[in-house]
Amino acid sequence: MKTIRGLVLGMLALAPMCAVAQETTLKLVSAFPENIIYVKRLTAWADKVNAEGKGMVQLNFIGGPKAIPTFEVGNAVKTGVVDMAMSTGAFYTNVMPEADALKLAQISAQEQRKNGAYDYINEVWNKKANMVYLARMLDYTPFHLYVNKKIDKPDLTGLKIRVTPVYRDFFQALGAQVVTTAPGEVYTALERGVVDGYGWPVSGIFDLNWHEKTKYRVDPGFYNAEVSVVMNLDAWNKLNDRQRQFLTKQAIALEAENEFWKKYNQDDVKRQAQAGIQVIAFSGATAKEYVDKAYTVGWEAIIKSAPDTGPRLKQLLSKK
Ligand code: 173
Asked: E-strand spans in the chain?
């Protein structure tokens, strides 16, 4: 009797230690090339996760598009070829078109957690992409049009512009001919004169040396550039509660770092001026029409391609 009781007690005492002993290593990739600032911030975050997650969760960063090409990262996460990725929604519209709606958010990642947007995004991402939407690590950052031919109004007729799904419908609505490429192909496209310009956030053009091939930035910016960490849903479900809580905490901490972008963007604007990049600025009513058109065209495209989820995403992500 005594020995059985002792055995049971012993097992009970050991049980929590068994839970503690579960360490899971997750394979992580980036849809952006490794020279880009987002990847530096991702690997810094992964280092912190690894330091704090010893014996629990470890992230194994495999690499950028050389490991998994930019536009295939979404499917790799969906099918579990990798466990986790940093990407933007525009790179996995082939998995679900509404992935690109995150660029239309007019409220911060923190506000999205509060108003139910984050939960709804997860509901949709779980169901349609077999993904968990973990953390938005880029915020407060508009996109811009960069051109090498001078324009004096929002008319891109006759211009060939490099796009991703982020900019496609908007630039087409302004009359542009568009060419879709991954970030890794922009420099060559500019160098060969295959394109007269490109879309990109306000910051980051120095990371791949595009400033060497850029004459003008067009102001104002539009949308809110989104880069996020997503995870395969099955890999998430295989974790225990403690591991999931740990990753959630790390995800929220990553989002709390987003204030970083405000100064970074200001500094990059100065650096562009120093590099001789001129500003073509639309002002007054023209500027307002330009930005309004971006949102109108953007939401129309989302709602058309995802009529089931688009309207709710619009309601949750737009400024009241
Ligand atoms: O490649 C891109 O221009 C793009 O879609 C994007 C999205 C978010 C951040 C940076 C680039």
From this structure: 24-30, 57-63, 84-87, 131-136, 143-147, 160-163, 177-180, 197-201, 216-222, 228-232, 278-281
User: Measuring from atom 3 of ligand 1, which residue has the nearest CA?
Assistant: 200
Query: Which domains are present in the chain?
Result: 24-140+225-259 (3.40.190.170), 143-224+263-317 (3.40.190.170)
pTM of the model: 0.93
For ligand 1, say whether the CB of 200 is within 6 Å of any of its atoms. yes
- In the reported structure, the alpha carbon of residue 200 is separated from the centroid of ligand 1 by a whole-number distance in angstroms of 6
Give 103-145 pLDDT, tens digit per residue: 999 999 999 999 999 999 999 999 999 999 999 999 999 999 9
Distance between Cα 86 and ligand 1 center (Å): 12
Residues 6 or more apart in contact with residue 11 via CB below 8 angstroms:
none
Q: Could you give the maximum distance between any two Cα atoms of the chain, in Å?
A: 91
